[in-house]
Amino acid sequence: MEIQHIMQVVDASFVARQSIEKSLREIDRRALNAMVLVKRHGNTLAGYGVVAQAFRERAANLKESASHLQETIAPLIQAHMRILQHQRFVASFSAIAQAMAQYGQICASLENIRTRWRDTIAREEVEARKILLRLIATVDVLQEGIEEQEYVVTNGRIEAALAEDTGAPLMRVSRDMGEAVRTVSNAIRTYRHQLESLAYESSTDI
Question: Does the model's pTM come out above 0.85?
Answer without folding.
Answer: no
